[in-house]
Amino acid sequence: MSCKYRTTVSLPALRKKILYLDQFFFSSAFHERDPRFVKAAARIREISAMQLLVAPFSSIHEDETHLWRGYDGKNKDNLMEFIKTTSRGHKFERRHNVEQTQIVRAFKAFVSEKGESHNLQDRDAVAGDIHGWDDYFRIDVGRYIGDIELMRDLKRQSIENLVDVFPSWRNSTNTFEQDVAAEVRAAAKGYLESYIQHAARLISGDYNALFDSPEISMVVESLLHCLPDNVPLEGQLERIGAFFKSSHFSEVPFIRLSARIYATLKAMVKRGAYVDRVDAIRRLSGFFLDVKHVSTYAPYCDAFIVDQAMASIVADPLVGLERAYAVRVYSLNNWDKFLSWLDGLESAMTPEHRAGLVAAYQ
After folding, report:
1. Band of residue 136 on the pLDDT scale cut at 50, 70, 90
2. Which end of the chain, N or C, is more open, meaning fewer C-beta atoms within 10 Å of its C-beta?
3. What residue ranges do the domains of the chain occupy?
């Protein structure tokens, strides 16, 4: 009754593959709309249990789940639980945090006059130690979503506004690279204008700006903290303005990808795609969220599942997603290759890894 015998078994170090599953995959698997997704979801859970793969969920998954119409609260909760179970509790960092980390790192390289520094690290995008051995236990903490009806209305308006500019796009004579540059400039302008509005509110005595200003208004604030205190504010802002015009900024991964995705969509429109307005709104209903998915998290992943429409865009050499970030892109266009990729993870398991599974979970 008082035996103090104990033994310790050392488990081998892991390096799991990171997989991003688009919302359409989770919803289709959960509602069993397509047996291909149901089978793949089961296989993903199996490979993840073997400690070979991790498929984190993101705040964007939560947003999309709550934006759906036609599903009551229970169904949404069940879907979100399905997503988190498939992800084994692993979660990507919030999109804004990932983007700000990339921008600050690039700005520091710009200030120090080093070459472009976009060294992507897993911890920038994924919370916790994803390469450790998983246990069975996880704690689920939800988050505040906000005004769902307002978010739905803004999503609808944004897509309608996007499609309404297609006629002017068709008459544009800009080259692809000019369109990319325009998207980069628009992003930089957004950061600067949001910060100026935030600062103006504070100067006027509206301290609610500290709590309800858009998150992007904090990006310039973060860059200011990277500069010496003895530099006047005007000089600091000039330095930040120069950064926004540099290749350090245009090559920030999420800036580069989102700009090229939008420019590629524009090129498709010029070639005659999305002529029917109603059909375009339907087909592009999730476009903005898909762009956020891909541009923010794909560079950190080994594989990425998207719908066929987005897959055709990111597969375009002008976007260069796979080439630039060594991430495999899968959709129903190449579903067999995705399943083969999963099988390959298991077949490549080392004897040490198999022994570790037996020791840890026998």
Report:
1. low
2. N
3. 17-130+145-361
Write the DSSP assignment of 154-217 as a string of letters.
HHHHHHHHHHHTHHHHHT----HHHHHHHHHHHHHHHHHHHHHHHHHHHHTT-TTHHHHS-TTH
Cα 4 to Cα 1, 7, 360: the distances in Å are 9, 10, 21
Q: How far apart are CA 361 and CA 318, in angstroms?
A: 46
pTM: 0.84
**Distance between CA 163 and CA 157 in Å, rounded?**
10
User: How many whole angstroms separate alpha carbon 225 and alpha carbon 223?
Assistant: 5
Of the listed ranges 99-113, 122-136, 310-324, the least confidently predicted one is: 122-136
Q: What is the pLDDT of residues 323-333, one digit of tens each?
A: 889 999 999 89
Q: pLDDT tens, 21-61?
A: 887 787 777 777 788 888 888 899 899 989 999 988 887 77
Alpha carbon distance, N-terminus to C-terminus of the chain: 24
Q: What's the rounded Cα separation, in Å, for the pair 105 and 107?
A: 5
Of the candidates 1, 2, 9, the one whose C-alpha atom is nearest the C-alpha of residue 360 is 9
Sign of the Cα pseudo-torsion (241, 239, 191, 292, in order): positive
Gap between the Cα atoms of 170 and 326, Å rounded: 33
User: Apex CA 335: angle with CA 333 and CA 336, to 5°?
Assistant: 125
- Does residue 253 contact residue 120 with C-beta atoms inside 8 Å? yes
Cα–Cα distance for residue pair 196/189, rounded to 1 Å: 10
Residue 144: pLDDT band with limits 50, 70, 90: very low
Q: At what angle do helices 35-49 and 73-86 cross, to 10 degrees?
A: 50
More confident residue, 43 or 74: 43
* DSSP type of residue 252: S
- The residues with which 55 forms a beta bridge, in sequence order, are none
